[in-house]
């Protein structure tokens, strides 16, 4: 389970866009695991989400999201009133923070 903080209101704006992607089953399975958690967080007005994915699966989700053709993303951003790069950055930073928090035990974190 990956726990992270992100601007859920920004991220949820890309829900329809992500669910309409014509991608392989692996990508869609990752989206299907991620989206309900995002919806739950949005419904309770929280910026904390818990995604039922392992670290490598979450890395794969980020890889898939970063590989989406963004040729027309500026148009999509205007339509949904969201920032795609902010969404991706928050996922990446959140995963890195989760990794640091879960790799080192208390008192052993690098300075």
Tell me about this structure:
Helix 4 runs antiparallel to helix 6. This protein is mostly helical and 111 residues long. It has a two-stranded antiparallel ribbon. The chain contains six helices and two strands; from the N terminus they run E-H-H-H-E-H-H-H.
Give me some keywords for this one.
111 residues, two-stranded antiparallel sheet, globular
What can be said about this structure in brief?
The protein has 111 residues and is mainly α. The chain is 63% helix and 7% strand.
- Count up the helices: 6
Task: Say how many strands there are.
Answer: 2
**What's the shape?**
globular
Structural class by SSE content = mainly alpha
Radius of gyration, Cα only, in angstroms? 14 Å
Give me the strand/helix succession.
EHHHEHHH
Describe the secondary structure blueprint for this structure:
Elements: E1 2-5, H1 8-12, H2 15-19, H3 25-43, E2 48-51, H4 55-67, H5 73-80, H6 84-103
Antiparallel strand pairs: 1-2
């Amino acid at each position: 389970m990956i726990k992270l903080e992100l601007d859920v209101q920004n991220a949820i704006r890309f829900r329809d866009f992500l669910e309409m992607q014509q991608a392989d089953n692996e990508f869609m399975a990752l989206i299907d695991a991620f989206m309900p958690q995002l919806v739950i967080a949005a419904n309770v007005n929280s910026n904390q989400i818990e995604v039922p994915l392992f670290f490598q699966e979450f890395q794969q989700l980020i890889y898939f999201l970063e590989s989406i053709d963004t040729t027309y993303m500026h148009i999509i951003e205007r339509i949904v009133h969201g920032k795609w790069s902010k969404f991706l950055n928050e996922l990446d930073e959140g995963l890195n923070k989760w990794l640091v928090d879960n790799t080192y035990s208390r008192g052993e974190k690098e300075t």
